[in-house]
Design goal:
The chain has 301 residues and is α/β, with parallel strands linked by helices. The protein has 2 domains: 200 residues, P-loop containing nucleotide triphosphate hydrolases (Rossmann fold); 52 residues, no CATH class. A 7-stranded parallel β-sheet has the order 3-2-4-1-5-6-7, with helices on both faces. Strand 2, helix 5 and strand 3 form a beta-alpha-beta unit. The radius of gyration is 21 Å and the shape is globular. The two termini are 30 Å apart. The relative contact order is 0.13. It binds guanosine-5'-triphosphate and magnesium ion. The site of magnesium ion has 4 residues, from helix 4.
Length: 301
């Protein structure tokens, strides 16, 4: 392992590399590709669900519980709010309180709330390379369901709460199709039982667990549901397959980013936009793009 990889075990160095991954993802990927682990090391737990159901609060609890069992845990909060307005980026971070010593939390901005951005995919790899037993990823499930969480997670926990408004929306939104474990959070509220009985028949036999993340109630039941799914997945070889899927996603996103930046540059060069007005000039554009991509991949001028 070269020094850049060894350094990942150091929190400050890891933070620094995650910042590079966020600002210049392709650079980070090329630099750190030799650090990526061969055998699955981290259990990647995706946490999704409608806004405000208590995902971050729940993660804070899970981090605490798993840490107290001696597991190392990192949380990655994928956040759709603009880094310019700051809002929930900081909000998410602040709501995760009282972090135990070995735990690590990071917010990553997502411009598109239905996708896991390249910077988050690379961050995930770095966290696994850093050796965390668990990497918990919070993805927003606002409005439309975020199925990209399925591509990255060994297991998906869908977090619901009572009084979500029109409960039918939960079903319609497809949330009941993507979970391996369902959580009815805010069980300290009286309406939780109603939500539980509403959701249960749609869970296709998957565990539905009532918890109160705020008061730390019933976390043991949730954790044992999570553990038993992970164990089953390991035995079935599903975690190995999932990791290949996750890397495929990473590669696709990295190549798309490469392509997009080359297109921006090619069109940005003098006359590039002009060329678009003449259909016969498309070949010229494509040639320019090809050269640009080849240079970038081989590191030419
Ligand atoms: N009563 C009650 N409130 C809770 C519970 N868990 C979380 N909350 C509250 O619900 C609000 C939203 O919690 P978050 O953890 O930020 O929810 P989230 O799903 O991460 O929110 P977004 O990331 O904005 O979608 C906060 O005010 C929490 O204090 C719970 O178990 N019971
Ligand atoms: Mg949150």
């Amino acid at each position: 392992m070269d020094s850049a990889c060894a350094e990942l075990a150091n929190r400050a160095a890891l933070s620094k590399m995650l910042s590079v991954a966020e600002a210049r993802p392709l650079e980070a990927l090329l630099k750190l590709s030799e650090c990526l682990v061969r055998e699955p090391r981290s259990a990647v737990v995706g946490i999704t669900g409608p806004q405000g159901t208590g995902k971050s609060t729940l993660i804070s609890r899970l981090v605490g519980e798993l840490s107290s069992e001696g597991r190392t845990v990192a949380a990655l909060l994928v956040d759709p709010s603009s880094p310019l307005t700051g809002g929930a980026v900081l909000g998410n971070r602040l709501r995760i309180r009282d972090l135990p010593d070995g735990a690590f939390v990071r917010s990553v901005w997502a411009e598109d709330e239905r996708a896991v951005p390249l910077r988050a995919l690379i961050s995930l790899e770095l966290l696994e390379a850093a050796g965390y037993d668990y990497v918990i990823v919070e993805t927003p499930g606002a409005g439309q369901v975020n199925t990209s969480v399925l591509r990255i997670s060994d297991l998906v926990v869908v977090v619901l709460m009572p009084l979500l408004g029109d409960e039918v929306q939960v079903i319609k939104a497809g949330l009941m199709e993507i979970g391996d474990v369902y959580v009815v959070n805010k069980a300290d509220l009286p309406e939780a039982d109603l939500m539980y009985s509403y959701v249960k028949p749609f869970a296709r036999g998957r565990p539905v667990v009532k918890v109160s993340a705020l008061y730390g109630e019933n976390m043991e039941e949730l954790l044992s549901a999570v553990r038993s799914v992970l164990e089953r997945r390991s035995l079935e070889g599903a975690r190995e397959r999932k990791r290949i899927e996750r890397r495929r996603y990473l590669l696709e996103e990295a190549l798309l980013e490469l392509l997009h930046s080359a297109i921006r540059e090619e069109l940005g060069r003098v006359g590039g936009e002009e060329l678009l007005k003449r259909p016969e000039a498309f070949a010229e554009l494509v040639r320019g793009l090809k050269a640009r991509l080849a240079n970038r991949i081989t590191g030419g001028p």
